[in-house]
Design a protein that fits this description.
- This protein is an alpha+beta fold.
- The chain has two domains: about 10-80; about 95-215, Sandwich (Immunoglobulin-like).
- It contains three helices and eight strands, in the order H-H-E-E-E-E-E-H-E-E-E.
- The protein has helices spanning about 10-30, 40-80, 170-175; strands spanning about 95, 100-115, 120-135, 150-155, 160, 185-195, 200-205, 215.
- The strands form two sheets. A four-stranded antiparallel sheet has the order 1-2-3-6. A four-stranded antiparallel sheet has the order 5-4-7-8, with no helix packed on it.
- Strand 2 (about 100-115) and strand 3 (about 120-135) form a beta hairpin.
- The chain is elongated.
- It starts with 9 loop residues before the first helix and ends with a strand.
Length: about 220
């Protein structure tokens, strides 16, 4: 009696062999796949890349902001304070900082002026006097005594207060401290200008660092 073969038919064994072969190739692909392409590494790498990009963008933004602030800061420090361009004249109330001003008049006594104890004050050019009522609208006492006050002629030339102002009869009003909410009337501001100058305005400042305010005198 002939023994029967137990080997499965070829057509039945082929599908199993193909499946085994596919699994083997899949295992091999996983084995030789670069470490950076393996699934456990893909998500962390992507996250790290996004964080790095965000940090770089923020750093560039901070540098730009710092440069802009520095540039603005340098521009403000290098530019001198400019008087406010207002259409004000004699009798008009104007403000700068903690002072409110009302220019009440201007006079030109000429080359000489009578000072304290009958002393005669002599100008290098011509004296010009501007009379101003000053009110302290701030919270602390402050004096209008400041070389930052400017008299302006029609050519744009500026004159600061004359040192002779301290020898005038009204010197105390210019140097005294004005209390908050108090007004000192007829504060004398004395200037020594070039002979023949046509005075057109005065720029009033409560301090050397203030913007100032311009009052027309003509």
């Amino acid at each position: 009696m002939t023994d029967q073969q137990t080997t499965p038919p070829l057509e039945l064994a082929a599908p199993n062999d193909a499946s085994a072969h596919g699994k083997s190739e899949k295992v091999n692909r996983k084995t030789i796949r670069p470490w950076y392409k393996k699934k456990p590494f893909v998500l962390p790498l992507g996250l790290i890349l996004l964080i790095a990009i965000a940090l770089a963008v923020n750093a560039i933004g901070d540098i730009g902001t710092f440069g802009s602030t520095k540039g603005n800061s340098q521009s403000k420090l290098q530019s001198p304070p400019q008087a406010k361009d207002v259409d004000a004249g004699i009798g008009t109330k104007v403000r700068d900082g903690t002072f409110e001003y009302v220019v009440t008049g201007m006079e030109r006594p000429g080359k000489t002026l009578t000072g304290k104890v009958g002393k005669t004050l002599t100008a290098n050019g011509d004296f010009v006097i501007v009379h101003v009522d000053i009110t302290n609208i701030g919270d602390v006492p402050q004096s209008p005594d400041c070389s930052c006050q400017r008299l302006v002629d029609d050519k744009g030339q500026e004159f600061e207060p004359s040192s002779a102002i301290l020898s005038t009869l009204e010197a105390l009003k210019f140097v005294q401290l004005i209390n908050p909410a108090s007004t000192v009337d007829d504060v004398l501001m004395l200037f020594d200008v070039a002979p023949g100058s046509k005075v057109v305005a005065i720029e009033l400042h409560d301090s050397p660092l203030s913007q100032g305010v311009r009052v027309n005198l003509s």
